[in-house]
Design a protein that fits this description.
Strand content: 15-25%
Bound molecules: ligand C2E, magnesium ion
Radius of gyration: 37 Å
CATH topology of the largest domain: TIM Barrel
Oligomer: single chain
CATH architecture of the largest domain: Alpha-Beta Barrel
Largest sheet: 8 strands, mixed, barrel
CATH class of the largest domain: Alpha Beta
Strand order of the largest sheet: 13-14-16-17-18-19-20-21
Structural class: alpha/beta
Shape: elongated
CATH superfamily of the largest domain: EAL domain
Length: about 625
C-alpha cells in the first residue's frame, strides 16, 4: 500500500471518529459555539497546515463568527456583522454565491480587496471557504480553511472540508430547531414576551445572580383594569392589538429588565435587578404606570384607555423565591385596585392583613344579593320652584351581618373588582322598577349604574328586559352615569347610551363638574339631565368660586337645552340661590333623605308613612319657600 493511500485511510478513520464525537456533542445539547470550536480543533488536527474558521449567516444575511480558535478574537470581531456579498472575502462571497470560493492569494484577489489588510495582520495568505447549507438548501454558514502559504487546498483537505461542512449543517440546524422549540415552549406567541414556563425557569437564576452580587431584585406585577370589558365589547382582535401596544410600552419603560413575561390575559410580570440602588424601582413603577395609562390609538378610528395597577415586591426583603415574591406583589396590586385609582404600590407586611380583609369583604359582597342583604332607599327629586316631587333616585344599601349598613361608596368598588356588580346592578334595576310600577305615572325613577355594567355588551338588553317585566314606561326610567364611564372605552359607552335612548330611557350625567373633562363629555352625548355635584352646592353660599361654577353650569345647561338638577341641597339658603340661578330641580336632605320608600307614601300613594322624613311631611322649608 502506498504511503498516501495509507494516510488517506488514516484520515478517513479519524474523520469517522470526529463525526461520532461531534454528533454526540450535538445530541447532548452542548452549546453551538462549543461544538463548533471542538470541530475546528479536530479539523486542524487532521489538516495540520490549515487554520479553521466557522461562521454562521443570520436571517439578515450577516456573518456571525461561531468558532476560530486559532485566530485572534479581534479578527472574528472585525468580521462580525458583515453583510454577505460578491466581494466579501472568501466566506462572505461563498455565503453570497452558495458555492465554494477558493482564494489562492489573498493579497491580490479582488474579493479580498477590502479585507486584505485585516488578513495581513493575522498572517494567512490563502483561504478556501465552503457554504454550509441547511436541508432545504438555505445557506446557514461557512466553513473555511486558511493557509499560511499562497496555495490551493489539497484534495485531502477538500475531503475533510466536505465532511466538516456536513457536520456543521447538522449542528446549526439542530441548534435552530432547539431555538424554535424553546421559543414555542417559553414565549407568548402574541406579544413575543416570555410566558409562565419561562418565568419559572429563568427567575431563580436572576435571584442567584443578584444574591451573589448583593443586589436587590424588584418584581413588578402589572394588571390592566377594564381589559376584560374591552375584549368583550370590542372583540379579541382589538384586545390583541391593545396587548401588543401595551407590550411595546412596557419594553420602553423598562428597557433593562432581566425578564418580562405575560402571565395571563392582561397580567404582566417584570423582574429587574437594581443597578443604581433601590430608589430606581420607584422611578420604574411610576414610569410604567404613567406610560401604560396614556391613550392607545388602535387604528385611526379608535382610541382606548386602560387603567393600570402595578404591585411591587422586592428580593430579598419581601421573599426569596418566585412564589413568595409574586404573592406579595399580587397583594400590593390588590391594594392599588381596591383603592379605585390606577397607580402602583410596594408590598408591606401590613398589606397582607388588609388583603385578607378585602378578600373576605369581596366574598361577602358577592353573596349579598342572594342572601337578601341588599335593599334600596329612595331620595326625592323636586321641582326647584314648585317643590313638587318629580321622581326618586334609588340608592343601594347593604345590611352587612357584621358591619351593619355599609354605604355604596365603600362596597361598589369591591363589587366591581370581584365581578359581583353585574348581579347587583341587575338587582337594583329590577327592584327600582318594581317600586316605580306602583307609583303614579308622573313620577320617574333614577338608577345609578357603574361603568363596569354599562360597557358590557348586553346592558341595554338587561334594561329592556327589566322594563318589560315591570311594565314601567321607559320614559319614567333615568339612568345615572358618571364621567368615569368615558375614560376607558368611550365608543362602547356611547353605543350603549344610544341604545338606552332608543328604548326611550333618559340618561343623566351624575356628579357633574368633578371629572377631568366635563365639557367634552357633555358634547359627546345628549344627556337629558345634568346633576351638579353636591360638593359645589355645599360650598356655593360661602364660596364665590363654587357659586360661579354652579352659575356657569346653569348657563351651559340652558345654552344646550339640558335640564339641570342640583344634588346635596341641605339649606334653604342653597335652595334660594339655586332658584335664582335658574336651577330646574333639586335633591338633598332639605327636600328628603334617602329612605325606604314607605316613608314617601304620601307622594307615591302607597301605605301611610312610618315616620318623619324631615318633619312629618316633606321639609316645611321647601314648601314654605315655594
Ligand atoms: P350619587 O349617585 O351622587 O348619590 C348621591 C349621594 O349623595 C348619596 O350617597 C346620597 O345619600 C348623598 N346625599 C343626598 N343628598 C345629600 C345631602 O343633602 N347632603 C349630603 N351630604 N349627601 C347627600 P350614597 O347613597 O352613599 O351613594 C353614594 C354613591 O354610590 C352614589 O352617588 C352613587 O354613585 C353610588 N351608588 C349608590 N347606589 C348605587 C347603585 O345602585 N349602583 C351603583 N352602581 N352605584 C350606586
Ligand atoms: Mg346618582
Ligand atoms: Mg351624584
Amino acid at each position: 500500500m502506498s504511503g498516501s493511500r495509507a494516510r488517506s485511510r488514516d484520515v478517513e478513520n479519524r474523520l469517522k471518529d470526529i463525526q461520532h464525537e461531534i454528533l454526540v456533542a450535538v445530541a447532548s445539547g452542548e452549546p453551538l459555539v462549543d461544538v463548533m470550536t471542538l470541530l475546528c480543533r479536530r479539523a486542524e488536527e487532521v489538516a495540520p497546515n490549515a487554520i479553521c474558521s466557522i461562521i454562521a449567516v443570520d436571517s439578515e444575511g450577516r456573518l456571525r463568527p461561531l468558532a476560530a480558535p486559532a485566530l485572534p478574537d479581534w479578527y472574528s470581531a472585525a468580521i462580525d456583522g458583515l453583510l454577505t456579498g460578491p466581494l466579501t472575502g472568501s466566506c462572505g462571497t461563498a455565503a453570497y454565491l452558495g458555492e465554494p470560493v477558493e482564494v489562492v492569494n489573498i493579497r491580490t484577489d479582488p474579493r479580498w480587496a477590502d479585507y486584505k489588510d485585516l488578513a495581513a495582520k493575522v498572517g494567512p495568505k490563502a483561504c478556501w471557504s465552503s457554504p454550509i447549507k441547511s436541508h432545504g438548501g438555505r445557506v446557514v454558514g461557512t466553513f473555511a480553511f486558511y493557509f499560511r502559504r499562497s496555495r490551493p487546498a489539497s484534495r485531502l483537505e477538500k475531503r475533510i472540508v466536505d465532511r466538516c461542512v456536513h457536520l456543521c449543517a447538522i449542528a446549526i440546524e439542530n441548534w435552530e430547531a432547539q431555538g424554535r422549540i424553546r421559543r414555542l415552549a417559553f414565549e407568548d406567541p402574541l406579544t413575543g414576551l416570555g410566558n409562565r414556563a419561562m418565568l419559572v425557569e429563568e427567575f431563580p437564576k436572576i435571584l442567584d445572580r443578584a444574591q451573589a452580587a448583593g443586589k436587590e431584585v424588584a418584581v413588578f406585577y402589572v394588571d390592566l383594569n377594564g381589559f376584560r370589558t374591552i375584549n368583550a365589547a370590542r372583540g379579541h382582535k382589538v384586545g390583541d392589538q391593545l396587548l401588543c401596544a401595551v407590550t411595546e410600552r412596557i419594553r420602553k419603560a423598562c428597557a433593562n429588565a432581566d425578564l418580562t413575561a405575560r402571565l395571563g390575559a392582561d397580567e404582566f410580570l417584570i423582574a429587574k435587578t437594581e443597578e443604581h440602588g433601590g430608589a430606581e424601582f420607584e422611578a420604574i413603577a411610576a414610569a410604567l404606570s404613567m406610560a401604560l395609562s396614556e391613550r392607545y390609538s388602535i387604528d385611526a378610528a379608535m382610541e382606548l384607555k386602560v387603567g393600570v395597577s402595578v404591585g411591587i415586591a422586592r428580593f430579598p426583603q419581601d421573599g426569596d423565591d418566585l412564589d413568595a415574591l409574586m404573592g406579595h406583589a399580587d397583594t400590593a396590586l390588590g391594594q392599588v385596585k381596591s383603592s379605585g385609582r390606577p397607580g402602583y404600590a410596594f408590598y408591606t407586611a401590613k398589606l397582607d392583613a388588609e388583603r385578607r380583609a378585602r378578600r373576605a369583604f369581596e366574598r361577602d359582597v358577592s353573596v349579598a344579593a342572594a342572601a337578601g342583604q341588599l335593599s334600596l332607599v329612595f331620595q326625592p327629586q323636586a321641582d326647584a320652584h314648585t317643590g313638587a316631587i318629580k321622581g326618586f333616585e334609588a340608592l343601594l344599601r347593604w345590611n352587612h351581618p357584621i358591619h351593619g349598613f355599609v354605604p355604596p361608596a365603600k362596597f361598589i368598588p369591591a363589587a366591581e373588582a370581584c365581578g359581583a356588580i353585574d348581579a347587583i346592578g341587575a338587582f337594583v334595576l329590577r327592584r327600582a322598577l318594581e317600586q316605580a310600577s306602583k307609583w303614579p305615572s308622573h313620577l320617574r325613577v333614577a338608577v345609578n349604574v357603574s361603568p363596569a355594567q354599562i360597557v358590557l355588551a348586553d346592558f341595554a338588553h338587561v334594561v329592556e328586559r327589566a322594563l318589560q317585566e315591570s311594565g314601567v314606561d321607559p320614559s319614567r326610567l333615568e339612568i345615572e352615569v358618571t364621567e368615569s364611564l368615558f375614560i376607558y372605552d368611550a365608543d362602547t359607552a356611547l353605543q350603549t347610551l344610544n341604545r338606552l335612548k332608543a328604548l326611550g330611557v333618559s340618561v343623566a350625567m351624575d356628579d357633574f363638574g368633578t371629572g377631568y373633562s366635563s365639557l367634552g363629555t357633555l358634547r359627546s352625548f345628549p344627556f337629558d339631565r345634568i346633576k351638579i355635584d353636591r360638593s359645589f352646592v355645599g360650598d356655593m353660599v360661602s364660596n364665590k368660586d363654587a357659586a360661579a361654577i354652579v352659575n356657569s353650569i346653569m348657563s351651559l345647561g340652558r345654552a344646550i337645552g339640558r335640564r339641570v338638577i342640583a344634588e346635596g341641597v341641605e339649606t334653604p339658603a342653597q335652595l334660594d340661590l339655586l332658584r335664582r340661578q335658574g336651577c330646574n330641580e333639586v335633591q338633598g336632605y332639605l327636600i328628603g333623605k334617602p329612605l325606604p320608600i314607605e316613608h314617601y307614601a304620601d307622594v307615591t300613594g302607597g301605605a301611610e308613612p312610618r315616620g318623619a322624613v324631615n318633619g312629618d311631611r316633606l321639609d316645611p322649608a321647601v314648601t314654605a319657600v315655594v
